[in-house]
Design goal:
It contains eleven helices and ten strands. It is an alpha+beta fold. It has two domains: about 90 residues, no CATH class; about 230 residues, Bira Bifunctional Protein, Domain 2 (BirA Bifunctional Protein, domain 2), CATH 3.30.930.10. The structure holds phenylalanine.
Length: about 350
């Protein structure tokens, strides 16, 4: 009788515990089967009324069932707890990810690389120079002596160098001409894109910080025709259409003769529109045949070589290509502008 009862309790327990996955339910089961007032407890109390023989048989059985129930409950409890902690650390791979902001190259940097690619394909070397330049390279060696009024054309930010020497945040990339010639022998062709600074009031077409693009070609018989031809090829490649180049007389101390150069308006193809002020031409930069005084300052024999140089603002051609109407947008740090390119 008692034996059957104990076996019934066990099978009832096994049935009840089968699908339990909740700790509270498991706890109720523990109280129900192992608590002081449990059925099994009551049944064990009846042991004392049994004969010695029956006690010997049923006693161990009762203990065995009790231990089995206890160990099953303990094992299940452990299982449920570890499942819970796994669930807590679970990663839901179906939740949409957080978008990571990835930066990209600034429009000017992109265009600079494009210019370098085009000129490399035409056999040009690429150099840079320094942004903090000495007075000597910025001006003296470029045939702009101290106190010469031409210096005023470059509104220069002067700073004091480490050794107390007066230095300039370079207002143009032309000092690179001297640096390059001091370490290279003609014939050569080289470009130097770089950051420049000018101490002047800013407006839609002037900024204190901007990028210039210098080119220098030197050889035995380099002439203005070479300049026009190379400039024409380059601007046609850059704007992906036939572009005309024209030159107008001008003055730079480091070139002789000097000129400003224009390209045919890429918006109206030279017909005349609001971008080019109805002239059909857009002013691009300065150029000229390298002044022999500059060759001399760089250590070349006077009269031995001929060459041309030019310099123009990279922002200016970026503005033409993308129809940007204010140069201050480039380095103003407004991401709404930067992200468009
Ligand atoms: N360095 C001149 C400027 O900044 C441009 C220039 C470069 C002119 C080379 C002639 C030759 O205005």
């Amino acid at each position: 009788m008692l034996e059957q009862k104990i076996l019934n309790i066990k099978s009832e327990f096994l049935g009840e515990i089968e699908n339990v996955s909740d700790l509270d339910v498991l706890n109720d089961i523990r109280v129900k089967y192992l608590g002081r007032k449990s059925e099994l407890g009551e049944a064990l109390k009846g042991l004392k009324d049994l004969s010695v023989d029956e006690k010997k048989k049923i006693g161990p059985l009762a203990n065995e069932v009790k231990n089995e129930i206890a160990s099953k409950i303990d094992a299940l409890e452990k299982n449920i707890k570890s499942q819970a902690s796994l669930l807590k650390d679970r990663i839901d791979v179906t939740i949409p990810g957080k978008k990571k902001e990835v930066g990209h190259l600034h429009l000017i940097t992109q265009i600079q690389s494009e210019l370098i690619d085009i000129f490399s394909s035409m056999g040009f070397d690429v150099t840079d120079g320094v942004e903090i330049e000495t007075e000597e390279y910025n001006f003296d060696k470029l045939n702009i002596p101290e106190n010469h009024p031409a210096r005023d054309a470059w509104d220069t930010f002067w700073i004091k160098g480490k050794d107390g020497e007066r230095k300039a945040l370079r207002p143009h990339t032309s000092p690179m001409q001297i640096h390059y010639m001091e370490s290279h022998k003609p014939p050569f062709r080289v470009i130097a894109p770089g950051k420049c600074f000018r101490n002047e009031a800013t407006d839609a077409s002037h900024d204190h910080t901007f990028y210039q693009f210098e080119a220098l070609v030197v050889g035995d018989d380099v002439n203005v025709g070479h300049f026009k031809n190379i400039a024409q090829q380059f601007f046609s490649m850059f704007f992906k259409k036939d572009v005309d180049v024209r030159i107008r007389p001008s003055f730079f101390p480091f070139t002789e003769p000097s000129f400003e150069f224009d390209i045919s308006c890429t918006v109206c193809d030279g017909k005349g529109c609001s971008t080019c002020g109805r002239t059909g031409w857009i002013e691009i930069g300065g150029a000229g045949m390298v002044n022999q005084a500059v060759f001399e300052a760089a250590g070349y024999e006077k009269g031995r070589y001929q060459g041309f140089a030019w310099g123009f603002g990279i922002e200016r051609i970026a503005m033409m290509r993308h129809k940007i109407d204010d140069i201050r947008l480039f380095h103003g740090g407004d991401l709404r502008f930067i992200k468009q390119f």
